[in-house]
Amino acid sequence: MAQAEFRSYQRDQVISFRKTTEDFGGLSNMAPGFPITMLGQLIRTSEALYQACRFPHRPDIQRIVIDETSPMTAKMKSKPYRKDSRPDWEDIRVQVMRWCLRVKLAQNWETFSALLLATGDRPIVEDSRKDDYWGAKAAEDDHLAGRNVLGRLLMELREVLRSDPDRIAEVLPLDIPHFVLLGRQIPTLKRMALKAHTRADPAVTTDKITQSTAEESSKKPIQGLLL
Q1: pTM for the whole thing?
Q2: Average pLDDT of 64-72?
Q3: Which residues make Cβ contacts (< 8 Å) with residue 45, sequence separation at least 6?
């Protein structure tokens, strides 16, 4: 996954996002308004969740990251500790990002699913000035070029949402060593109906989809897609 091939996109034929205030800015991990709760903790953005996952062995750093109100500050606060990221981070970071996006959808079902579906069939591209791994950068002839891994993961999630939404009835923890938050094992998270986020644990919240349906859906492969 780390070697996902470069792609080129015609800018006027894609759904692109750069600023969170744009029409499709909610697709960004930096976007406010898509809070996540787990293990009694409020995590304001999927960016903060992703950065916290770097440091399962350092709950002190995880606390610094998730307590920040600004997603950019949360990201910047993690930077001095990057050398202390979990040793397999480069190998698992796409898995972690995929999981974070599924959690963002499951816990903000109505709003985030509507946003994803509003992209239609167009490619989704993060328009980035600097990052051509997660996004794509401006190129000649009004193109965007890059690996666009975040955009492709969003397209992958959009396809699952359309074809088999029960696959996202619950989000299982990743099958990787030491997948923890603040010293506690990350649980299976249930899809949430529209409601205000509290500090309650959403692991016991469900929208009346049966556990057997969710477990069966979770067995279907998703890891190798990356559209």
Answers
A1: 0.86
A2: 95
A3: 29, 30, 31, 32, 34, 35, 36, 71, 74
